[in-house]
Design brief:
This protein has 105 residues and is mainly α. It has five helices and two strands. The longest helix has 24 residues.
Length: 105
Amino acid sequence: MNPTTVWIAIGLTVVGCYLVKLLGLLVPAHTLERPLVRRLAALMPVALLAALTAQQTFSAQGALVIDARAAGVGAAAVALVLRAPFLVVVAAAVAVTAAVRALGG
């Protein structure tokens, strides 16, 4: 990919982000006050973060991969179920991922 193509892609992304932001500002206030819209707005970041986590954890070069990252996410899930503090959840995920990788996984 040549540098010109990259800069064109960056420019189009900037313009697209600006237009999305502008469109959001043009939505009437009474529309944003509806209960369904408020609930969707509250759940959207969680859904996007979950999708990003799943994509980063279970894919490599476009293929489905189950490796040490999956074990780390599993350890974090167990820590969350046990109501561990956030730092403990992160530490458990890091420790399990590192251990699995050290064992050759």
